[in-house]
């Protein structure tokens, strides 16, 4: 399984590449007044506005640092009604792609309430890597904030 490797607070995490559309440099985003701190803003992409979520703010409560390795990962995100929406995830340090053997993945040993998006783990020569399940990144209320139009019938 091809995955995008990134660091978060010096720990290794990976997103499955199957949902990744594009990786772009961290650029200036349009702020959203009164938005929660984990919503970094809107990215103007191919004539549309894409919501961007700061992965650091969402998971560890601090904004992503401005590093040369900071990137916005554009991915297809399925909403409640199974519509694919474009979502940007701001990652502090995107490193490389790696191939992980699904047979060697083991379930996370600890489950923490509110972080159901942290999935299986694998031990590699790079260290312990934990998968992030993009479909479980957000609670229903956050999903409604990010994709209000997706909730209305087609």
Walkthrough of the structure:
The chain is mostly beta strands and 154 residues long. The protein has a single domain (2-151), classed as OB fold (Dihydrolipoamide Acetyltransferase, E2P). Helices cover 8% and strands 45% of the residues. It has helices at 55-60, 140-146; strands spanning 2-8, 11-16, 20-25, 39-45, 48-54, 71-78, 84-91, 93-99, 118-124, 127-132. The strands form two sheets. Strands 8-1-2-10-9 form a five-stranded mixed sheet, with no helix packed on it. A five-stranded mixed sheet has the order 3-6-7-5-4. Strand 1 and strand 2 (11-16) form a beta hairpin. The longest helix has 7 residues, at 140-146. The model has no long low-confidence stretch (mean pLDDT 84).
- What is the 3D form? globular
When the domains are counted, the total is 1
Count of individual beta strands: 10
Specify the biggest β-sheet: 5 strands, mixed
Strand content: 35-45%
Overall structural class, as computed from helix and strand content, comes to mainly beta
Identify the CATH homologous superfamily: CheA-289, Domain 4
The appropriate CATH architecture is Beta Barrel
Averaged pLDDT: 84
Query: If helices are DSSP runs of H or I spanning 4 or more residues, what is the number of helices?
Result: 2
Topology:
Elements: E1 2-8, E2 11-16, E3 20-25, E4 39-45, E5 48-54, H1 55-60, E6 71-78, E7 84-91, E8 93-99, E9 118-124, E10 127-132, H2 140-146
Parallel strand pairs: 2-10, 5-7
Antiparallel strand pairs: 1-2, 1-8, 3-6, 4-5, 6-7, 9-10
List its salient traits.
mainly beta; 2 helices; 5-stranded mixed β-sheet; 154 residues
């Amino acid at each position: 399984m091809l995955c995008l490797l990134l660091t978060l607070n010096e720990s290794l995490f990976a997103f499955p590449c199957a949902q990744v559309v594009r990786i772009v440099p961290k650029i200036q985003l349009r702020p959203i007044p009164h938005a929660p701190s984990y919503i970094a803003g809107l990215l103007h992409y191919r004539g549309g506005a894409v919501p961007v979520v700061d992965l650091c703010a969402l998971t560890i409560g601090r904004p992503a640092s401005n590093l040369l390795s900071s990137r916005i990962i554009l991915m297809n995100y399925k909403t409640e009604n199974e519509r694919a929406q474009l979502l940007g995830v701001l990652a502090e340090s995107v490193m490389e792609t790696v191939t992980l053997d699904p047979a060697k993945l083991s379930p996370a040993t600890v489950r923490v309430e509110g972080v159901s998006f942290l999935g299986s783990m694998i031990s590699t020569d790079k260290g312990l890597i934990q998968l992030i399940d993009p479909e479980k990144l957000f609670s229903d209320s956050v999903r409604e904030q990010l994709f209000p139009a997706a909730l209305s019938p087609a």
